[in-house]
Amino acid sequence: MYEKIPRTFFQQPTLKVAASLVGKLLVIQGDMEKIVGKIVEVEAYKGPDDRAAHTYGGRRTTRNEAMFGEAGHAYVYIIYGIHHCINCVTVGPDYPEGVLLRAVEPLEGLETMAQNRFQQPYESLTNQQRLQLTNGPGKLSQAFGITKHAYNGHDLQSDTLFIADSDRHTHPVLTSPRIGIDSSGEAKHYPWRFYEKNQIYVSKAPKPNDE
DNA sequence: TCTTAGATGCTCT
DNA sequence: GAGCATCTAAGAT
C-alpha cells in the first residue's frame, strides 16, 4: 500500500535528504489504526559542523546516541520537558547528521490524532484545532503518539514506523533560516529549513528567505 | 491578530 | 543547577 523509502535514500547528503523529504509520507502502523501524514516542513542538522545540532563537534552522549547509528533510523528526544521531537538519521553510521520533522499534513487516522492531541473526536474540533493537529514538531509527535521511550533508535525500515513515497501533488519547496535556535550563534542564519509553499500546515507562516 | 510569560522534566556541566 | 531544535493561554492591540 505504501512504498517504504529504501535506506539508501537516507545515506545521501543531509541537505539533499531534507529537501527530498518534503512531500513524503510519515506512516505509523499501530495496533488498531494507521496514522499517515504528508511531510510539509523539515530542518537539516549537519552534526559536527552545525552549532545548533545536538552533535556539534562530534559530541556523543546518551541522549544523542541514536544519531550515531545507521542512516534511516529515528532519533527522538524530549524538549522543554514536555514535547517530543522526531528526527531521521542521515549519512551515518558514525556521522551524526539528521533531519528534524517539523510539520505534516494529516491524511489518515484523523480520529486518533484528534484524541491524542485534544481528547476529542475530530468531528468536534474547531477549524483552528484541526490546523494545529500537526503543525509543529511537538504537536505532530503528540498526534502520532511518538515518544522517546517507544521510538528512539527505531528503524524506519520497520513495519510500525516508516517514511513512504508519495505521488501526491506537492507545491514548490522553499527554504528559510531555522526556528527556535537563537542561542546557536552564526548557525541560526543557515537556510536549512525546508517547507512546502502555500501549505497551511506549516508551523510558521512562510517567510521569505531574506534573513 | 500579535506578543508575552509560564509550564515542565530530561540532559549536560 | 541551567538551559533547551516547544506549546499554550492569557493579555494587549
TrEMBL record:
It comes from Geomicrobium halophilum. The keyword Hydrolase applies. Coiled coil: none annotated. GO terms for biological process: base-excision repair. GO terms for molecular function: alkylbase DNA N-glycosylase activity; DNA binding. The keyword Transmembrane does not apply. This is Putative 3-methyladenine DNA glycosylase. Belongs to the DNA glycosylase MPG family. Pfam families: Pur_DNA_glyco. Keywords: DNA damage, DNA repair, Glycosidase, Hydrolase. Its EC number is 3.2.2.-.
